[in-house]
Design brief:
By secondary structure, the protein is an alpha+beta fold. The chain folds into three domains: 5-134, Immunoglobulin-like, CATH 2.60.40.150; 138-242, no CATH class; 247-489, von Willebrand factor, type A domain (Rossmann fold). It is 21% helix and 32% strand. It contains eleven helices and 23 strands. Strands 15, 16, 18, 19, 21, 22 and 23 form a seven-stranded mixed β-sheet that branches. α5 links the parallel β15 and β16. The radius of gyration is 28 Å and the shape is flat.
């Protein structure tokens, strides 16, 4: 799973806090809590206490880990501190807010009215929370070659590679990069590689490095007076680069556009039968809706208008129920297929389900090509302002495998990621091939994907797992896919627009 953890610092300011002290203003402090399940919250950090102010700007930043693929529910509480104990139970509560870390980073700065409890405002008090990623985004890019190396293999030439080490705090050497092996070559040219400066030398340009490559053969040196070396390694190019992160793009204003495609083919079974994958349990859910809710909840924080196009495929539609449709608007409004929030998609699904006749075949390529055409239009802006995520929920019996392969290879050159969640007990071998984790996916004419954009996960693996586990698994690769696309195009993050003056 991709490691998408980064550190974020929140800075907090407030205005018009309630006055709880007689004859003077409050002495406020801000506490940051994160939800850990159910109704339990854990304190992560708190600011300093400021004296005698109703409009504090705290200098102490609140630091926490950021994970794109989970909903991180936060609570910020402001307290009036009138004693020296760290327990807040005996301090006056001046109000707080609940929101997700995703909401803060996607807006970069959020202002909200403070509440004493749900629906009860804390006077005119407001809080502003701003986020900043903590990082050294420099990277070192190196290209190396060697000339005239010794033969080390009995019958062929050598298979050389290089290893780089940085010196750790205790003087120990830690491996930071190993090049690929160049087979059977005494004058190898290794591929250009890029290592974050933090990893390469702990961001310290004066820290010693060691390259493991024995170009002096001491035995030969003893035997031959004329011996010079066993080859020369040289640096062809060395550059310092800025490596942008997912948060650089999101906080710069890049929008993630979320589209859903739902499989209504006959292999799902008649929705009126309890054995059908579309059958609604008494609590109004099924595997399709559970998967949609889990993934959609995370994604929706990154889309400002919360309007999501949703489509169905593989069903015959009223009034005439003629041919199967492979890309119809879930709300039956082809000119405006947008649903308001994840709740809107679920509502449209529940409305449309009784009116459909499940049919076939199972064709993925129409909906992939549809979203790809919108992503193509977005590329004309020539900047990093839009990225698209298509979630396909399916029982996995795919008919147009070759056309889908071709559609994915074309889409790999676009700002698009495709997530496929397999619902039900089917054999998902075809889906695993599309995922391409075990090898590079190629089109029917042998063209390889430009980058890996498909993530497949069978829902059954998560049936008994915590609700958040599915989203963590399917969304883990999206940040790296987004960064890899904009890097491939050479696009820097958008420059955040200055806040409008009120």
């Amino acid at each position: 799973m991709a490691d998408c953890v980064t550190k974020v610092e929140l800075s907090v300011s407030c205005s018009d806090l309630l006055d709880k002290d007689v004859g003077s203003k409050s002495d406020p402090l801000c506490v940051l809590l994160q939800k850990t399940g159910g109704d339990s919250w854990t304190e992560l950090a708190r600011t300093e206490r400021l004296k005698n102010t109703s409009s504090p700007s705290f200098s102490q930043r609140l630091r926490l880990d950021y994970h794109f693929e989970t909903v991180q529910n936060l609570k910020l509480g402001i307290y009036d501190i009138d004693n020296s104990t760290s327990d807040l139970g005996d301090d006056d509560y001046l109000g707080g807010i609940e929101l997700t870390l995703g909401q803060i980073v996607s807006s970069k700065s959020v202002s909200r009215p403070l509440q004493l409890k749900k629906g009860k405002p804390a006077g005119k008090g407001t809080i502003t929370v701003s986020a900043e990623e903590i990082k050294d985004n420099r990277a070192i890019e190196l290209e190396l070659e060697a000339k005239n190396l010794d033969k080390k293999d009995m019958f062929g030439k050598s298979d050389p590679f290089l290893e780089f080490f940085k010196q750790g705090d205790g003087g120990k050497w830690q491996l930071v990069h190993r090049t690929e092996v160049v087979k059977n070559n005494l004058s190898p040219c290794w591929k250009k590689f890029c290592v974050p400066l933090q990893t390469f030398c702990g961001s310290d340009l004066d820290r010693p490095l060691k390259v493991e490559f024995d170009c002096i053969h001491h035995e030969k040196q003893k035997k031959k007076k004329s011996y010079k070396n066993s080859g020369v390694v040289s640096v062809k190019s060395c550059k310092m680069l800025t490596q942008y992160t997912f948060l650089d793009y999101v906080m710069g204003g890049c929008q993630i556009n979320f589209t859903v495609g739902i499989d209504f083919t006959g292999s799902n079974g008649d929705p009126r039968s309890p054995n059908s994958l579309h059958f609604m349990s008494p609590d109004g859910l099924n595997q399709y809706l559970s998967a949609l809710w889990s993934v959609g909840q995370v994604i929706q924080d990154y889309d400002t208008d919360k309007l999501f196009p949703a489509f169905g495929f593989g069903a015959k539609l009223p009034p005439d129920y003629q041919a199967a449709n492979h890309e119809f608007a879930l709300n039956f409004n082809p000119t405006n297929p947008y649903c308001q929030g994840i709740e809107g998609i679920i509502e449209a699904y529940r409305m449309v389900l009784p009116q459909l006749r499940l049919s076939g075949p199972t064709n993925f390529s129409p909906i992939i090509n549809h979203v790809a055409s919108i992503a193509t239009t977005a590329t004309q802006a020539n900047n990093a302002s839009q990225y698209f995520v298509l979630l396909i929920l399916t029982d996995g019996e795919i008919t147009d495998f070759d056309q889908t392969r071709d559609a994915i290879v074309r889409a790999s050159r676009l700002p698009l990621s495709i997530i496929i969640v397999g619902v039900g007990p089917a054999d998902f071998k075809a889906m695993e091939l599309l995922d391409g984790d075990d090898g590079v996916l190629r089109s029917t004419v042998g063209e390889a994907v430009a980058r890996d954009i498909v993530q497949f996960v069978p829902y059954r693996q998560f049936k008994d797992a915590p609700k958040t586990a599915l989203a963590q698994s399917v969304l883990a690769e999206v940040p790296n896919q987004l960064v890899s696309y904009f890097k491939m195009r050479g696009f820097e993050p958008p420059k955040p627009k200055a806040a409008a003056k009120s």
